[in-house]
Amino acid sequence: METSQEDSSAITRILEDYYFKGIYEGDIKLLGSIYHPGTLLFGDIKGQPYAKNLDEYLNGVKNRQSVKDSGKPFKGTIVSIDVVNSIAVAKLHVKMYDFNYDEFISFHKIDNRWVIVNKMLTDVAVH
């Protein structure tokens, strides 16, 4: 397998059309469609450890006010995407509610489809 621009473009589309949109609108069907069922999410928010499985994460998204409905700012930025064969990591910066997150999203290409298999995030000072 070779790294290709096509793979980077596919991951960019997933992030822009599903990930950022799903987070902004609180759309768990959209978000759920791009995650592997065994995905784990780790990190810290305001210095507090954060660890959830996919169901816990999607339930949290479902039960909070969406960023769209809150009227708070939202901006998702792709900092970089590195693809090697069937794996990839995207570094993102996400501003939502009163938070600024740096995120590392791991992808794996399964059955010719890129899916998120891990998410790590940390709340950082304003960029």
Structure explained in plain terms:
With 127 residues, the protein is an alpha+beta fold. Helices cover 31% and strands 48% of the residues. The protein has 4 helices and 6 strands, in the order ααββααββββ. Strands 2-1-6-5-4-3 form a 6-stranded mixed β-sheet. 15% of the residues are buried.
- Let me know the largest β-sheet: 6 strands, mixed
Average per-residue pLDDT, rounded, comes to 94
Give the low-confidence spans: none
Fraction of residues in helices? 25-40%
Radius of gyration: 14 Å
What structural class results from the helix and strand content?
alpha+beta
Strand content: over 45%
Strand order of the largest sheet: 2-1-6-5-4-3
How many strand segments?
6
List the helices and strands and how they pair.
Elements: H1 5-25, H2 28-32, E1 35-45, E2 48-53, H3 54-62, H4 67-70, E3 74-84, E4 87-96, E5 99-110, E6 113-123
Parallel strand pairs: 1-6
Antiparallel strand pairs: 1-2, 3-4, 4-5, 5-6
Question: What keywords describe this structure?
Answer:
single chain, 127 residues, alpha+beta, 6-stranded mixed sheet, 4 helices, globular
Task: Provide a concise account of the structure shown.
The chain is of the alpha+beta class and 127 residues long.
